[in-house]
What we know:
Number of strands: 4
Shape: globular
Largest sheet: 4 strands, antiparallel
Strand content: 5-15%
Number of helices: 9
Distance between the termini: 33 Å
Structural class: alpha+beta
Oligomer: single chain
Order of helices and strands: HHEHHHHEHEHEH
Helix content: 40-55%
Amino acid sequence: MNTQETVDEVITSRYSCRAFLPTPVAAETVADILRVASRAPSGTNTQPWKATVLMGESLKSLMDRMLAAYDDPEEAATHSAPWAYYPKKWISPYIERRRKVGLDLYSLLGIAKGDAKRMHEQHGRNYKFFDAPVALVFTVENLMEQGSWLDYGMFLQTVMLAAKARGLDTCPEAAPLQFHRIIREQLQLPENEIPVCTMALGYADTAAPENTLRTERAPLTDWVRFLG
Length: 228
């Protein structure tokens, strides 16, 4: 493939992996991915991103604490995300897209509508980072404004593409932010840092049905205008 085809393949083959193999990923590989991703653009080169890489016992300890809180309704009710990821009011076409991805995922997993136990278990996999051997926690200093959060999105996409180019898959996650107080305590984050998201990273379990899910993209005619 030529350069364009190679880049296009990396971009279009990226997906949210929801089942990983236990195959370890070398710390040097993760460092290499983050080093490449740091070339992402940012306003006046502020580079607002900060990352904590979790493996082994540090990862297990965080997972155990989040899962314990998630499985205890009274404890879970005392936790909430530090910032709003989704809109307070859903409108079309966004609500339909959101519903479709959930229905498609549950269909692949054989989870019937109203099966609260299976739904709870599947959502809980977010707090296990879908069994990935590596989890990343991304944070930003709380004095940074919206521009830095836009920069952060470009950085996160670059992380995922750099991983994909190395044969690794990823799943960016907002769900663990519900337990940001646990994350903060476990990682000993400074008070001036806000968790932005987490990310699972590793080798995809290609036999897992959930990893066959590919979300649709709206045609350009729905969202692009050409003026000339």
